């Protein structure tokens, strides 16, 4: 049995772009022949419904970089999250340095009021100006999301304290300064957290076992005779690519991801995921 773990943003789908039809066709063909397709994403579970609704059937998902998973036909299961103390410690440090951050929970994203971060968004737009239309599209989508789809509270940590039932899956940072990102990555990494870059100008702070590598190993324990494939593009995919039997990077992946890959698939815009599955894993009838 083959099990394909596939990242979403930058791999299965370009941000804000249409998903190539071949990707959906490949999932259907793969699962019809008895293999498994698993979305493995940094997105929270509540951010996956739109793409799952586009499938002709269903598939397993691993979300929040391995903080939880959901098998077909079952409810989500949460495996790892940040302690309240670790959230309070990290938030205090970020507030002191006036960093824009938001907290992913099992019931959505919480952040301080949107208007507090207009200068941060302006700086991020300027940073991404060199990307042209793509950079502008990214910021339009991000700002719309932060303004309309997040819960805005005066103090996210106080909110977590008042709602102990919430699980803080990760703290995400967006910052225009590369030097500041490098500093934060070093300063926030310790034995109780794992800090890594994700997408453009972002850092994520998670529980150390909330990684795609841990998630792959946990999932594959259900299929001891299976052969695993991982398809990705970014730094948060490196742990997955190290854990699988066959590591695949799409053409638009970062250089260090390509270096770890056994196979380079086509660009995500060209349906690299679907083309790889059809060329390497689908048995001709």
Question: How many angstroms separate the termini?
Answer: 17 Å
Strand order of the largest sheet: 5-4-3-2-1-12-13-14
For this structure, what is the CATH homologous superfamily of the largest domain? HAD superfamily/HAD-like
CATH class descriptor of the largest domain: Alpha Beta
> What characterizes the major β-sheet?
8 strands, mixed
Number of helices: 11
The ordered string of helix (H) and strand (E) elements is: EHEHEEEHEEHHEHEHEEHEHEHEH
Short description, anyone?
This protein has 285 residues and is of the alpha/beta class. The protein is built from eleven helices and 14 strands. It has two domains: 2-79 and 210-280, Rossmann fold, CATH 3.40.50; 84-206, Hypothetical Protein, Haloacid Dehalogenase-like Hydrolase, Chain: A, domain 2 (2-Layer Sandwich), CATH 3.30.1240.
Summarize the topology.
Elements: E1 2-6, H1 21-32, E2 36-40, H2 49-53, E3 60-63, E4 68-70, E5 77-78, H3 84-96, E6 100-105, E7 108-111, H4 118-127, H5 133-148, E8 151-152, H6 156-162, E9 168-174, H7 178-188, E10 194-197, E11 202-206, H8 212-220, E12 227-232, H9 238-243, E13 246-250, H10 255-260, E14 263-265, H11 272-280
Parallel strand pairs: 1-2, 1-12, 2-3, 7-8, 12-13, 13-14
Antiparallel strand pairs: 3-4, 4-5, 6-7, 6-9, 9-11, 10-11
């Amino acid at each position: 049995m083959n099990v394909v773990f596939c990242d979403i943003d930058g791999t299965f789908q370009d941000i804000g772009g249409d998903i190539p039809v071949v990707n959906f066709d490949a999932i259907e063909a793969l699962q019809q022949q008895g293999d498994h397709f698993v979305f493995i994403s940094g997105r929270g579970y509540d951010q996956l419904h739109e793409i799952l609704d586009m499938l002709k059937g269903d598939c397993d998902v691993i979300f929040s970089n391995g903080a939880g998973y959901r098998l077909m036909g079952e409810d989500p299961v949460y495996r790892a999250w940040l302690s309240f103390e670790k959230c309070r410690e990290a938030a205090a440090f970020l507030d002191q340095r006036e960093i824009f951050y938001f907290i992913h929970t099992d019931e959505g994203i919480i952040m301080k009021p949107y208007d507090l971060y207009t200068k941060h968004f302006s700086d991020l737009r300027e940073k991404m100006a060199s990307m042209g239309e793509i950079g502008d599209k990214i910021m339009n989508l991000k700002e719309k999301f932060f303004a309309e789809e997040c819960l805005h509270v005066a103090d996210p940590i106080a909110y977590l304290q008042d709602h102990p039932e919430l699980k803080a899956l990760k703290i995400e940072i967006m910052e225009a300064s590369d030097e500041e990102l490098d500093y934060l990555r070093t300063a926030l990494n310790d034995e109780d957290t794992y800090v890594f870059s994700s997408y453009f100008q972002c850092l994520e702070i998670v529980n150390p076992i909330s990684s795609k590598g841990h998630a792959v190993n946990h999932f594959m324990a259900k299929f001891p005779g299976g052969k695993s494939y991982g398809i990705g593009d970014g730094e948060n995919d490196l742990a997955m690519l190290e854990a699988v039997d066959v590591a695949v990077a799409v053409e638009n992946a970062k250089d260090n991801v390509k270096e770890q890959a056994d196979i380079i698939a086509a660009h995500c815009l060209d349906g690299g995921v679907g083309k790889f599955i059809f060329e390497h894993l689908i048995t001709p009838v």
